[in-house]
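Re: [ENG-882] Designed sequences occasionally contain unexpected residues at chain ends

Forwarding the minimal case from QA. Structure tokens:
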């Protein structure tokens, strides 16, 4: 980024341009501005689509007005799904015993893996020392 060389304030580069004088053109000259924006002010004094009371060239005028739907309106329903089924009751005691068995199996596999790793480390260290 280049910095301005004039003796102005440091934030002058980021300031908005001055508004046009009263009676002057409110929009950019032809060939300038954004695509799709009119180059001149229409005969009515305002751009089409701007609400009354908004000065011309003031920017985004907001979304267009919408009409609310009629009272009691709902989207059409074509299919009605059946009500959800009841789930079977859970056997809490059976779930607890199955969880305990799974926990014992997990601890057993971990212990066996730990013992194998310790034996491998001892074997590798003993080969290195002797």
């Amino acid at each position: 980024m280049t910095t301005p060389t004039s003796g102005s304030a440091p934030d002058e580069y980021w300031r908005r341009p001055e508004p046009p004088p009263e009676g002057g053109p409110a929009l950019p000259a032809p060939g300038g501005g954004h695509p799709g924006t009119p180059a001149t002010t229409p005969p009515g004094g305002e751009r089409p689509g701007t609400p009354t009371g908004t000065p011309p060239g003031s920017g985004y005028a907001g979304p267009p007005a919408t009409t609310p739907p009629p009272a009691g309106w709902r989207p059409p329903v074509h299919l009605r799904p059946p009500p959800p089924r009841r789930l079977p009751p859970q056997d809490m005691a059976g779930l607890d015993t199955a969880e305990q068995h799974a926990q014992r199996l997990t601890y057993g596999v971990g212990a066996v893996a730990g013992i194998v790793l310790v034996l491998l480390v001892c074997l590798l260290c003993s080969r290195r020392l002797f």
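QA comment: On inspection the terminal residues look reasonable. The chain has one helix and no strands. Proposing we downgrade this to a documentation issue.
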